[in-house]
Every structure is written in C-alpha cells, then in structure tokens.
Amino acid sequence: xxxxxxxxxxxxxxxxxxxxxxxxxxxxxxxxxxxxxxxxxxxxxxxxxxxxxxxxxxxxxxxxxxxxxxxxxxxxxxxxxxxxxxxxxxxxxxxxxxxxxxxxxxxxxxxxxxxxxxxxxxxxxxxxxxxxxxxxxxxxxxxxxxxxxxxxxxxxxxxxxxxxxxxxxxxxxxxxxxxxxxxxxxxxxxxxxxxxxxxxxxxxxxxxxxxxxxxxxxxxxxxxxxxxxxxxxxxxxxxxxxxxxxxxxxxxxxxxxxxxxxxxxxxxxxxxxxxxxxxxxxxxxxxxxxxxxxxxxxxxxxxxxxxxxxxxxxxxxxxxxxxxxxxxxxxxxxxxxxxxxxxxxxxxxxxxxxxxxxxxxxxxxxxxxxxxxxxxxxxxxxxxxxxxxxxxxxxxxxxxxxxxxxxxxxxxxxxxxxxxxxxxxxxxxxxxxxxxx
Length: 437
Ligand code: GLU
Ligand code: MG
Description:
Blueprint: E1 6-12, E2 18-24, H1 28-34, E3 36-39, E4 61-66, E5 72-74, E6 83-91, H2 102-117, E7 120-131, H3 144-148, H4 151-163, E8 168-173, E9 179-184, E10 187-188, H5 190-209, E11 214-215, E12 231-236, H6 255-266, H7 268-275, H8 281-284, E13 297-299, E14 306-309, H9 316-322, E15 324-327, H10 336-352, H11 370-376, H12 385-394, H13 404-422, H14 426-436
Parallel strand pairs: 1-6, 13-14
Antiparallel strand pairs: 1-2, 3-4, 4-6, 5-6, 7-9, 7-10, 7-11, 7-12, 8-9, 12-15, 14-15
Helix pairs in contact: 2-10, 4-5, 5-10, 6-10, 7-10, 7-12
The structure holds glutamic acid (GLU) and magnesium ion.
C-alpha cells in the first residue's frame, strides 16, 4: 500500500541542477530493475525556464535507474515528510549508459583511471553557500555570532547530514557575510560525486524547512564573496594506501601525483568549461579572492588552481592518510559528476604522458609580472564562459573527453546561457543565478 511517502529519483544535469521524478517509496525496488522513463530533451534545460536547442525529439527517452547505495532518507521533521531521494544512472533502452549521462561521464573516467593505473580516487567537496535573508543580524566573518545566528538551522543540518550518511566534518561560518561552509569526509570513486550532490540537496532541504533562503551561486552579488566548490582528493592504491604521497617527493608528491597535477595544469583552461560552467562563474574566478585566476600549481598556495595540502603531522602514517591535493576552480553551478569526471580525465592525460611536476608557484601568481609568469609557464584562466568554451574546443584531448552528442548538446546549453546573460547587467546576472542555485 502506498503510505504517502514519495521517493525522488534524481539526476544531476549539465547545469548542475538536481532534477527528479517522484515515485511511491515502496516501488523503488521495481524501479531499480526497470527504471523510470524520462524524455531526454530535458537534458537541454537551462537553469532558468528555457530550454536550449538540442538534437532530441518527442520520442527520445532514457530510463532513470536508481542506484541503491545513493539512498538518502532524512526524517528529522515533525511537520514535514521525510526527504527521500535516490540518484540515478541514465540508460538507453538496450541497458547501456546513455551518452549524455553525467554520472556515466564520471564513472567512465574513474574506470579508465582504475584500468590504466590500478588507482581509485578518494575525494570530498567543500560546500560554500550564502544565506539570503534580510532578517539576520550582522555578524563578522568566521565569528561565533555568524554561526549562532543560524543555530537552529545549523543543528538541523548536523542531524540531517548525519542521517544522510555523508559524514559531515565541519559546519561553519565563512568569510562572506551570511556565508557558510560544510565539509564531509571524502568518499571513494563515484560515491564522491554522489555525496556532493546529496550534501547540497540536504543543505537546501534543511534551509527550506527553516524558511531560510540559501544560494550556492558562485557570486550572489557582484561585490560579495564568491561560493566555491573546491575538491580535495588523493589516489588510493590496491592496499588502501595513499598513492599521492611520497615523503621523498617535492612537497610530498609521489610520481603519479606529479603526473596527475601536471595533467590538470596543462588542461586547466579547458577544464574551466566543465567546472566553472556558467556566465556567473567568471564573476567569481579571478586573482586575489582565493578562487584562483591562473592555471598554476603551488604547495600550500591558496591562490593556485591546484595545490598540495601538505600535512605537518610528525607521524608518517598519519601524514600519509591526510595528505591531499586541492582543485580550486570548481563552483556549484557545475555538476559534481562533471567536476570529478573532467578532473580525472585531465590527471589521467598527465599520467599517460608522464608529465613532470609543474614549477611550484610560491606566491600569488597575480603578483608576478607577465614575463615572470611566462617563464614559469603560468597562463591566465578564461575570463568568461565563452572563452572557456573556446579553450575546450582548442584542446584536442579535452574536447574528446565527452562523447560527440554530449559535447554538442553541452555546448548548446552553455551557449544559450551565455546569450541569456548577455542581455543582463552583472547585478541582474548575479540575481538570476542566486535564485536558480
Ligand atoms: N570563497 C572562495 C572561493 O570562491 C574560497 C575560500 C576558501 O579558501 O575557502 O573559491
Ligand atoms: Mg571555504
């Protein structure tokens, strides 16, 4: 009997929106076997009301197959039903991955990494977001007052994220006014992308129940502080060891980590088309904001696009466990699946070519002269989404990471967003994206 509980079968699309269909909770098992049909023209949706030109017609459909271990059921409210959600793989009628499924894009990259190197990715996102409420009293950045000002929300969040199984690690005030950050423990392989999506949707749901507006937009206002979605990651060997770490390597980077970092730096400009994929992303990306403006690598350097987070623990085992790399350009308008997939693709290119570790940039690269940057091989990141898409198309390897239909339809959605944003002032762009995310 349908007892009224609805399970959301959800997926994360090109614009990083979690879309869903709802089914009675007790029917999920049969949906795992047979899936739920979905008209794929929906993959061309912008984050707004419109839909981009796309290759799909009224007959085109995929099956959304809920993935059992993504189950999220949060039941902390007396006055609202549980938040019950599964993330889905999108399959064609013959049971193969749909070309344009973002989760399959991530899985294929992870599978190739594993097949070619024997390594798995262990990764976690930092979730920054802004509470959009006029009722909160002013509180200084990082202050006790800032987090206590939203104490009921924060405590719901701790319970809800715990129930969701995402292993929350920090729930804290950030630098921006009414900006907060949530981090979770890292997860292995595809679960890293799943966990990021679940975490974000649980944060949104908890805020909703408290009547608080939150936005994950990279730049809620032109002069405000940006919201990033940095990724911390390491590579794990067959024995569960941290293959990224070698105490003898520069900055503690192992050989494979050096290759991986070098691949990411080499493809960084193309990567922005995946990880900073909105017009508003480029109001956030830039020097002097710790969001990064250059394709640079640095040990400990928060202005570098990829950095080593060295651990100072004197115990070598503990140091190996916590040592990780941080990829800083991503923002929350990107699907976490696209972020993980593209990051792994770029790193894998570096591993295949055995590229050497780039020069460690030990200061803000924006403080170097153009000649000094050129000597270090540091190039600027794109300054607009249009420039990022051009960088993707100019990068022969990177433009092959997506299957052809996916690339074509992804570009169409992104160009539609560019055209929409071109009619708006920066203030309006920020306002529209703040509402959409
Ligand atoms: N808010 C910054 C960004 O947009 C990141 C600040 C930090 O280092 O946590 O990326
Ligand atoms: Mg932060």
